[in-house]
User: What shape does this take?
Amino acid sequence: MLGPKRELPWFAGSVLVLLVLAAIFSSSLAPQSPTEGDITQKLIPPIWMERGEGAHPLGTDRFGRDVLSRVIYGSRISLLVSLIAIGVAGTFGTALGLISGYRGGLTDAILMRLTDVGLSLPTILIAVVLVAVSEPSFRNVVLVIALLLWPRFARQIRGETLAIKEQDFVALAVVAGRSSAWIIRRHIFPNVVPTLLVISTLQVGYVILLEGTLSFLGVGVPPPNPAWGLMIADGRGFLATAWWITLFPGLAMLLTVLAVNLLGDWLRDHLDPKLRQLGSRAAAPEEPAAEPGRTVSEGHAHGPAARADRA
Amino acid sequence: MTHAAPPLLVVEDLRTHFFTRRGVTRAVDGVSFTLHAGETLALVGESGSGKSVTCLSLVRLVPEPAGRIVGGRVMFAGEDLLQKSPAEMRRVRGKQIAMVLQDPLTSLNPALTIGTQVGEVVRLHQGLRGASLRERVLDSLRRLRIPAADTRLGHYAHQFSGGMRQRVSSAIALSCAPRLLIADEPTTALDVTIQAQYLELLKDVQASAGVAVILVTHDFGIVAAIADRVAVMYAGRIVEMGSTLQVFDNPSHPYTRALLRCLPDVALKRQQLVEIGGQPPDLARLPPGCPFAPRCPERQAVCDEAFPATVDVARGHTASCWAVPARTPA
Assistant: This one.
């Protein structure tokens, strides 16, 4: 009745579990080295085709490197870039959003104009410029992405903060003699955690695509690292003859982004503070287990908040 | 009632105005009253009469920048709260003044457990930790008769009923042992059966701790049940003030009489309730005379000319109305 009650996102969940496992255990899962190839083994097609070889199930690229191994190792780069960039941008953006929303006034005006500037930066241009003045490196990719990402967090968290600070418990905390810093940390932050989780998840797909784009343009993670975007760029010249070099990293990227976005949607349905409010209003009677279905969704809704509480 | 000790709270000519595009709204316009330790003062009046803004002004929580306290003094335990720096004010608020608000739904943080929220106040004010902290938290919950307090500690606000939430809010408010409790319509969101129960509790706790209470309400039933004194507010001013008995026995201001006529009365077998005609005045465009004059059944020519002076009806009972003859002060 209140909000969609979707089942657990099995597809998204299993794709992501596979991806994380692939990233962690790359070295034992990958049959070959991702960076070194035998030039004599170049452009071997996948195993089910004529000329395919058992040693290279998804074929090899133009340097004879194993495509499967590179796709597996590529998950590492995608995940690491996403985690670090979102971690950096999320921390910075959340802090700014909380301060901006809670303080209001001039602080808010300045920080939000800064955010507007951040939101209007041309992504690819910035990346190209940054790489032009320094070397392409893992660190630079993360920096560029974080730079582009933080305003999204700041905006959302500020909006959320504006709503939360009007609640009575914040006024009561002021009456109780709490400092602004304490109120932000203890009362506002735990209430934005669900939102933060949802935004973070929804950004993962964007970051992976962005990282792919940057790599494709040659301003991302430098070769010979097996970034998916880099592999797609590599295979571009051989699309007609050796499509597998491009297809498999592309598929990996597609599946990952799709899975992450599905998970993000699911999380949003279950953690949305507005839906949660409705749920808690309706569940006001003494017995929390009044309606089994809702109890389940509330268990989810309050889980992360509870974890944040203990952290 | 005579009080040997100096009053805990003296409010003198408090004025809080809101500056809007439409002009200046005089939400609180010259409110004065005193309150002794252990006493309960009820602020009564229609919506928009300035009850809540008066309370917010006392703790300097008027929503800025639109609202501003433009005049008056709030002497709390001998110090003027309006002269304090924000840091000093913070110490006073936390240690000496606590609040309970109308909506028990948003008074508690939905993301923290009840135990955490009560515990933080206790820790802040008493510096307790670990097992002794837990004991104190349980004490303050039990004091407000929250059943199974020890299992309830780990629960969240949404797992409590409205009445229970209001008890938890009150437990939080009272656990720092304040000298003044400001309760802004604490029972409005509660069922009638729970209301009486809650008020009983509040009265008990107040009596045992000697807390002074300012109770905002528009319900005379609550006033009769719990208040020692009543201040009736209209258009940002106190129009009548006296002990509960005095005001109920001898309502002197026509507005007070009109309010009392709005109540069903079982003893008098009154069948029909009498409403007050007209609307409360626009606080941004107050007439020069008595603001109640347009709705007043006893209106005279003088009512439109000047605001009536406050006169003594009896000892400790005042009213601001031209129709009330001034008595020689006893």
About this structure: The domain at 9-111+156-320 of chain B is CATH 3.40.50.300 (Rossmann fold). The mean pLDDT of chain B is 84. Chain B has one domain: 9-111+156-320.
